[in-house]
Amino acid sequence: MKLTDAIIASATIEPGKTSRALQDGGRLFLRITVEAKQWRLKYQVAPGPKGERMKVLGEYPAVSIDKARELAADVRAAAAKQSAVREVVAASVPVAIAALPTASPDGPTFGEVAAHWLT
User: Fold this and answer.
1) N or C: which end of the chain has fewer CB within 10 A?
2) SS3 38
């Protein structure tokens, strides 16, 4: 369910709790504490749990619901672009290393790889 100003205004923190999260969808949520209401977004930059990131998009009501959704879309697009670049680089590294002349049967040394990369 998408959030509205009425839902946010009526939201309270349960007794004994320090915060509450209201989900808007697409991993965008509003974290409500006693001090503030912050828009936050969870997004992926790489597969797996180590690639998960969280970004604070701003405080409500200074950042409206529509603005938070717009910022979330921008962050997701940037993360997707960054992920695509990582995949291209990761795919090209074994080919680049295989193209290096090796003096030892174990493969190129760090110095050989660094010199090749600098060229």
Assistant:
1) C
2) strand
